[in-house]
Specification:
Number of helices of chain B: 4
Distance between the termini of chain B: 16 Å
Radius of gyration of chain B: 12 Å
CATH class of the largest domain in chain A: Alpha Beta
Largest interface: A-B, 16 and 14 residues
Distance between the termini of chain A: 46 Å
Structural class of chain B: mainly alpha
Number of strands of chain B: 0
Oligomer: heterodimer
CATH architecture of the largest domain in chain A: 3-Layer(aba) Sandwich
Order of helices and strands of chain B: HHHH
Strand content of chain B: under 5%
Strand content of chain A: 25-35%
CATH topology of the largest domain in chain A: Rossmann fold
Number of strands of chain A: 28
Chain lengths: 460, 81
C-alpha cells in the first residue's frame, strides 16, 4: 500500500449529501445514502481489481457506476456514446479489459469478456464499500478517425484543477454541461459537482434544446459548461432568454470574442469564463476576464501548471496531465521533459496569446498554410453572424481557395444578405492576408457539430 | 441574365473588392491586362461555378486556360448543358 492516502470518489462524497441529486431527462437520483446503494446489482466485489469497460447507454448509470467502481476496480474505461462498435475489440484488447458493465447484457452473451455485470436503476441497498486502490481512469480521444487512443488518468490528476480552486463560495452549485460526462470536458463537470458538494444535471442527446433549457431552469442549474459550438447553438435557438445561470464556462474549442460577448449579453448577471483543457493535457487554466486568448504571463510556472510555446504550439507539464497512452503501439504522451504538446497553435499579440487553430487542422491554400479558426474569428465578429466555418475548396487556378459557410443570427432579406456578405468580406480583407479572405461566402441554416460538441471539420 | 453578363458582372464585382482598376473589357483584352492575379481568377472561377453550376476549367482536362476575356466568356458559354 502506498504511504499516501488514496482518495476515491466515494471519499469525496462523505461530508454532506442531503439535498443533492444527479439527474437526467428521465430520472432523479438522490445522493443521500448513495454510498450504501448500488447500480451494479450488489456485484461490486466481483469487479474488484478488474479492468472494467463502462459501456452504458446513458450518462446517469455511467456516473453512478463510476462512483461505485472508483477505488475498487483496477481500471475503468469510459465509452462515449458515439464510439464506433467496430473499434470495441481493439480497445478491449489494448486496455486488458476483463469485465464489462452494461445495460445490454444480451449483446455481451457471446463475447470474450469473462465477466458481464448489468447496471440498473433505481439503485438498490448494499453495504458501503471501502476504497482499496487508486483506480486508473481510461478515456478515449475524440475527433480522430480510426481507433481512438486510450488515455490514462488518475482521479488525482483529473481533479487537480478542481482541488486547486478550492470549494465554491456561496450556496452549493448545481452543475450542468452540454457535454457527455464520458468525455474529458463533461467528466470535469461531473467531478466538480461531486467534489463541490453540489448537484448535477446531465444532458440527453435525444432532447430538444428548448426542453433541455427548460429542464436546466427547473432544476435550478447555476453553473454550466459547453463548447463554443454548444453555446452558439443555444444563442441561436432563442431559448437562452428563459435561463439565468450564475457561471457560464466554455472549453473544448477556441472561445472567440464574439461568442464571449454574445454570452455576456445573453446572461448579463453571469460570470463568463473559458477554460483550456484537453484529454491529454488536462486542465491548463481558466480565463475569467471576458477576453479571448490568455495573458502572456500565464506562461512559465503558475499554480503548478508549467506552460511554454515551442514551434508555435502550447506545451503543458503538470500533475493534471494524463500519464500515458495505453495499449499496443501506444506512443509517448509527453516529451522527454514531461511536457504534453497540445497541438494548439498560439500567437502572441501585445501582452496576450491568442489561439489560432489546431496544428492538424491547417488547410493549404496555394501552398500557404491557413488556420480556418483564424478566419472564422473575424467573420464571427460581425454582429449579424452567429457561427461560421471556413474550409478549403479545390481551385483549378491556385489548387485551393478559402470558402466560408455562415449562419446569420436572424434570417435577412436578400438585399440585406448581400450587404452583410460585402461587410464580412470587407472586414476579412482589412484583417487577414489576401489568401485567407474567403473567395465565396455561403449562408447556411446549420453547421454540423460532432458528438463531442465541436464544429465538424470534414477537411481538417 | 446571359452567361456573358454574369461573367462580366462577376469580374467587375471582384475588381471592386480587390481594388483592381479594370481597363475596358473588350473580347480581345488579354486576361493578363485585366490586372487580376491568380487569386482573383480563382475567386472568379469559384463564384461562377456557384452561380452557373459549371467550372469549365476542371471539367475538360485538355482545355488550356483562356488567353483573353472573350475566350474566358466563351468557356462558360460553350459548356454543354
Amino acid at each position: 500500500m502506498s504511504p499516501r492516502e488514496i482518495f476515491a470518489l466515494r471519499d469525496h462524497l462523505g461530508a454532506e449529501l442531503k439535498g443533492r441529486t444527479i439527474s437526467d431527462a428521465h430520472d432523479v437520483v438522490s445522493l443521500t445514502g448513495i454510498l450504501s446503494q448500488t447500480v451494479l446489482g450488489g456485484r461490486l466485489r466481483e469487479l474488484a481489481g478488474r479492468s472494467v469497460l463502462l459501456k452504458l447507454s446513458d450518462q446517469l448509470r455511467s456516473g453512478l457506476a463510476m462512483i461505485e467502481l472508483d477505488g475498487i476496480a483496477r481500471r475503468m474505461l469510459l465509452c462515449p456514446p458515439d464510439l464506433n462498435p467496430a473499434h470495441l475489440d481493439a480497445l478491449i484488447a489494448d486496455a486488458g479489459i476483463d469485465a464489462v458493465v452494461t445495460d445490454e447484457p444480451d449483446s455481451w452473451a457471446n463475447s470474450s469478456v469473462p465477466l458481464v455485470v448489468t447496471a440498473q436503476l433505481p439503485p438498490e441497498a448494499t453495504a458501503p464499500a471501502k476504497t482499496e486502490r487508486a483506480t486508473e481512469w481510461l478515456m478515449l480521444t475524440s475527433g480522430t478517425s480510426g481507433v481512438p487512443k486510450i488515455v490514462g488518468h488518475t482521479l488525482e490528476a483529473l481533479t487537480g484543477a478542481i482541488v486547486a480552486e478550492g470549494p465554491a463560495r456561496g450556496p452549493a452549485p448545481v452543475w450542468a454541461t452540454f457535454y457527455d460526462i464520458r468525455r474529458y470536458g463533461g467528466l470535469q463537470i461531473f467531478l466538480r459537482a461531486i467534489l463541490s458538494g453540489g448537484s448535477m444535471v446531465l444532458s440527453d442527446p435525444h432532447e430538444a434544446l428548448g426542453d433541455h433549457v427548460a429542464r436546466l431552469k427547473a432544476r435550478g442549474v447555476s453553473h454550466i459548461s459547453g463548447t463554443p459550438s454548444h453555446w452558439r447553438k443555444l444563442l441561436m435557438s432563442g431559448s437562452a432568454a428563459q435561463f439565468a445561470p450564475a457561471y457560464v464556462r466554455l472549453s473544448g474549442e477556441i472561445a472567440d470574442q464574439a461568442v464571449l460577448d454574445g454570452l455576456k449579453a445573453a446572461f448579463p448577471n453571469a460570470s463568463v469564463g473559458h477554460a483550456y483543457a484537453s484529454t491529454e493535457a488536462g486542465v491548463g487554466f481558466a480565463v475569467n476576464d471576458g477576453l479571448e486568448g490568455f495573458p502572456a504571463d500565464y506562461l512559465g510556472n503558475r499554480n503548478g501548471v508549467e506552460m511554454k510555446v515551442v514551434d508555435g504550439s502550447l506545451r503543458i507539464r503538470s500533475t493534471r496531465t494524463a500519464h500515458a497512452y495505453v495499449g499496443r503501439g501506444a506512443t509517448a504522451l509527453t516529451d522527454d521533459d514531461g511536457f504534453v504538446d497540445s497541438g494548439d497553435i498560439v500567437e502572441l499579440r501585445g501582452d496576450r496569446y491568442y489561439f489560432v487553430g489546431r496544428r492538424g487542422g491547417i488547410i493549404n491554400i496555394g501552398g500557404l498554410k491557413v488556420h480556418p479558426e483564424e478566419i472564422e474569428a473575424v467573420i464571427n465578429r460581425h454582429p449579424d453572424v452567429r457561427m461560421s466555418r471556413a474550409k478549403s475548396r479545390r481551385s483549378p487556378i491556385t489548387g485551393g481557395i478559402v470558402v466560408a459557410d455562415v449562419i446569420l443570427a436572424e434570417a435577412a432579406d436578400p438585399a440585406r444578405t448581400k450587404e452583410i456578405r460585402d461587410q464580412i468580406l470587407e472586414r476579412c480583407r482589412a484583417q487577414l492576408a489576401a489568401h485567407k479572405v474567403p473567395a465565396v461566402i455561403r449562408f447556411v441554416e446549420v453547421l454540423d457539430v460532432t458528438p463531442a460538441g465541436k464544429l465538424a471539420r470534414a477537411d481538417a | 441574365m446571359s452567361v456573358r453578363s454574369k461573367v462580366i458582372e462577376a469580374i467587375r464585382q471582384i475588381a471592386k473588392e480587390q481594388n483592381v482598376v479594370l481597363p475596358e473589357l473588350s473580347d480581345d483584352l488579354s486576361l493578363h491586362e485585366t490586372g487580376f492575379d491568380s487569386l482573383a481568377f480563382a475567386i472568379l472561377v469559384a463564384r461562377l461555378e456557384d452561380d452557373t453550376g459549371v467550372d469549365p476549367f476542371t471539367i475538360s482536362e485538355d482545355a488550356a486556360f483562356p488567353a483573353t476575356v472573350g475566350d474566358f466568356v466563351r468557356a462558360y458559354e460553350n459548356v454543354p448543358a
